[in-house]
Amino acid sequence: MKPLSYQIKRTSRASRTRIVVTAEKIEVIAPPDVSDDVLHQFVKEKWPWITATMQRLKARKVHSQSLAPKTYHHGAPVPYRGKTYPLSLAPTRLKRIKIEHTDVFKAHIPHTQWETVNSEEIRSAIIRWMKHNVKITVEQLVLQHGPKHQLFPKSITIKSQRSRWGSCGIHNDITINWLLALAPLEILEYVVVHELCHIKEKNHSKHFWSLVAQHLPNYRCAQLWLKQHGQVLMLGL
């Protein structure tokens, strides 16, 4: 047996011990009162399944094609909300690259950078724009869904995450993965509602899913979409 390498995360939100496997890591989620010895034994029993799952995910990742263009040049296809839009470059008197989105993604490049700007600088500007846009959209979705059951987060954070789409902390701070900007809007809406519902239900019980369904009766469609396309989204831009 190969040496076991995994992370243990104890949380009061966990009603049972479970294992989360990605292509990069193994995480054991457990209630606070479960001992290390019990967790180690649990992982040993599940090790054949864990290794098979990791191998499958790694193989899938190798064969998955990122949504991102190889370079961010004029005409490059930029993914956003489940579609792709051509990138247009234009000079500007501004001192910093500015991104606008209509039926295209327009990158306004400062005159001083026009001859030297590279793909990575344009990519970084687009990512900054998407993070900002996701924050605004999440705030709008909270205002849309929050009043129904008084589900208002203490704070909203948008950041990069490689193994989850969102989270809700013990103090009701929610975090949303900015990569959801690449998915259709209804997928982002589902993740936001999912985390908002954790404000009231700190688990994945029947009561939790019933609460999600009250906001989004067809939430299972979004779950299925993420299961089918999530690995590609995680490859990022």
UniProtKB/TrEMBL annotation:
Organism: Methylomicrobium album BG8
Chain segments annotated as coiled-coil in the UniProt record: none
Protein name from the UniProt record: Putative metal-dependent hydrolase
All copies of domain YgjP-like metallopeptidase, residue ranges: 17-229
Pfam family, one: YgjP-like
UniProt keyword terms in alphabetical order: Hydrolase
Domain of life: Bacteria
PANTHER family from the UniProt entry: UNCHARACTERIZED PROTEIN YGJP, UTP PYROPHOSPHATASE
UniProt cross-references to InterPro entries, sorted A to Z: UTP_pyrophosphatase-like (IPR053136), YgjP-like_metallopeptidase (IPR002725)
Any one Gene Ontology molecular-function term assigned to this protein's record: hydrolase activity
Secretion signal, residue range per the UniProt entry: none
